[in-house]
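**User:** My hope is that you can spare some time for a protein that puzzles me. As I understand it, each token names a local backbone shape. I would be glad if you read both lines and explained how they fit together. The protein I mean follows directly.
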Amino acid sequence: MTDTDPLLIERPSDDIVVLRINRPQVRNALNMAVRTSLAAAVAQHGADPAIRCIVITGNEKAFAAGADISEMADAGPIEIMTRNVQQYYRAISECPKPLIAAIEGFALGGGLELALCADIIVAGEGARMGLPEVKIGILPGGGGTQKLTRLIGRTRAMLLLMTGRMFTAQDGFAMGVVSEVAPTGEALARALDIAREIATMPPISVMQIKEIVNAGANAPLEAALMLERKAYLVQYASRDQKEGMRAFLDKRKPKYEGK
């Protein structure tokens, strides 16, 4: 890995990995090299039992300012279909480990769709987000129309989608898109604080929480509650459950192994 690679992989600790999009000359626009590298890295680290949390970020000017239009402008529908960029978003969304997006600057179009694949979004106060695809004659094709609508509701989503307007980090927080707003320049630091906090929790419980929240979000309430009950029972087969409850009774800090 070199500084010219489209994706940089950093290990701030043994149990946390940071995936940094690295195309500053084009505001981290998502080309196929970034998409494939990012999906592969998420799959690799998501399968690594030593990793407790994954953080995706860009630089101080852009998380990702959208898809790389130079790869799309002259393409036809069959080429776009066979390229199938949706598979890369799906691979990221389906990662069993917790994912945090740390946003500074722009997260637009495909960049925001990438952030929406994460479980937690931390945005710097100066961040600007949006789905402006309508302004260039297309529409969001990486899940943006559906995920944004489910997060903020139909009428607010329609306004943003049909106008391509950008919104601020504070607006995103108020709408439920952003989990936490950090001072400008501190989104990654705050994301790492959260990652370290999550990394101290029992990994099986964290992964099960992610699974049942995502699976239950669009299921009928009774079906979702059944998923919760089943996942709850599974916890009692883990060593971590015994360790957590015994540590509570012993008034000591638990040590979780993911077993």
Q: What stands out?
A: The chain has a mean pLDDT of 95. Residues 32-46 form the longest helix (15 residues). The radius of gyration is 19 Å. The chain has two domains: 7-199, 203-250.
